[in-house]
Amino acid sequence: MASAKQTARIRVIDGHLKSKPVTSLHSTPPNGLKYTVDSCHVLSMKEREFFEENGFFVVKGLVDQKDLDIYRERFKQICNGEIPKPAGLIVMKDVAIAKSEYMQGDSAITKIQDFHSDPVLFEYCSHEGILKYAEQFIGKDIMAMHTMLINKPPDPGSKSSRHPLHQDLHYFPFRPADRIVASWTAMEHVDRRNGCLVVLPGTHKGKLLQHQYPEWEGGVNKMYHGVRDFDENSPRVHLVMEPGDTVFFHPLLIHGSGMNTTNGFRKAISCHYASSHCEYIDVKGTVQENIQKEVIEIARRRLGDDVQFEFQDIWYMKGRLVHGERVNL
Ligand SMILES: CC(C)CC(=O)SCCNC(=O)CCNC(=O)[C@H](O)C(C)(C)COP(=O)(O)OP(=O)(O)OC[C@H]1O[C@@H](n2cnc3c(N)ncnc32)[C@H](O)[C@@H]1OP(=O)(O)O
Ligand SMILES: O=C(O)CCC(=O)C(=O)O
């Protein structure tokens, strides 16, 4: 029989998952500005209107080079085993080299994810300048829900360094969508040659679409689902950015990134923030069922079959309060 410890549910609070219907994704305030909040004034009205219309906003030079250097060094230390791996961290190789024993160290790593237990990298999520902007989109009670340092490698010829077009909300079992925002900071110059972000302006006004693995001959990285049945003719904007420039974007905005055709690694650091007033939802019977299944399968392999948990528990465990009060999430 499994021990009490083994059978202990990971779920930490009572009732946070009480099955709720998938609620409306958009609120409708009287002034018509639904993707930004009135209580914060870091953006001018014109800038707010830009975000409302397009679903993204770039802030130039928001993070200092010295901070980027610290994150870069920490990434190296983690990937090269110079410090113990922080709890919960996922270290991911590109699918093209995942089974190769020859590639080692930081140049073999395509991304680290869930660095919430690493005090050095997590500084990025509590960065005052970033939080000031995050507040404009989601209000003052802010949780850091998902963290990544992406090290897009030179493409080995497989084209697998691409990140298919997708909506981030596909991965998130909490709502409302309008109170979630991503920050993505370039750690070096990014343009189309090294696979900068590409966004489809205005797509955040749509709904969450079905996602699945694209049929790419050279393979697709684990969980890199692509959006289906979107308007292929929708205009695309490639975000050319300098180190420290930060783009904030809505979780329904369709975006992705192209192949890295250079010899260098294209680094970016990112955090997804959500208002702590958001609530967990049950994704059963929705377009998110496929990602739920995959996330649970991977977590089960790591935690063991006898630990019981649900999709939302995984998010509950890694969410961290970075500003204001923790309410629901
Ligand atoms: C908003 C945001 C979420 C948007 C996004 O970023 S979407 C992408 C989200 N990405 C993730 O959640 C990260 C997913 N990655 C992972 O969980 C891990 O890196 C894993 C793919 C499970 C590999 O973990 P690892 O500890 O290396 O485990 P193993 O060495 O035992 O490998 C297990 C099996 O997975 C394979 N694998 C490793 N890396 C990749 C890859 N990049 N793509 C596809 N398959 C991969 C590996 O070859 C192994 O396969 P088998 O030997 O079991 O056949
Ligand atoms: O950094 C990239 O290449 C893509 C990142 C992205 O699309 C995401 O994190 O949702």
Structure at a glance:
With 329 residues, this protein is an alpha+beta fold.
Give the N-terminus to C-terminus distance in angstroms.
33 Å
The CATH first-level class comes to: Mainly Beta
Residue ranges: pLDDT <50 for 5 or more in a row?
1-25
Provide mean pLDDT, rounded.
91
Number of domains: 1
CATH-level-4 superfamily name: q2cbj1_9rhob like domain
What is the total tally of β strands? Answer: 16
- Ligand set: Isovaleryl-coenzyme A, 2-oxoglutaric acid
Q: Find the structural class using helix and strand composition.
A: alpha+beta
Largest sheet: 8 strands, antiparallel
Kindly provide the radius of gyration, computed on alpha-carbon positions and rounded to a whole number of angstroms: 19 Å
Indicate the proportion of strand residues.
15-25%
H-E order: HHEHEEHHEEEEEEEEEEEEHHE
CATH topology: Jelly Rolls
Helix tally?
7
Looking at the overall shape, the CATH architecture is: Sandwich
Question: Overall 3D geometry?
Answer: globular
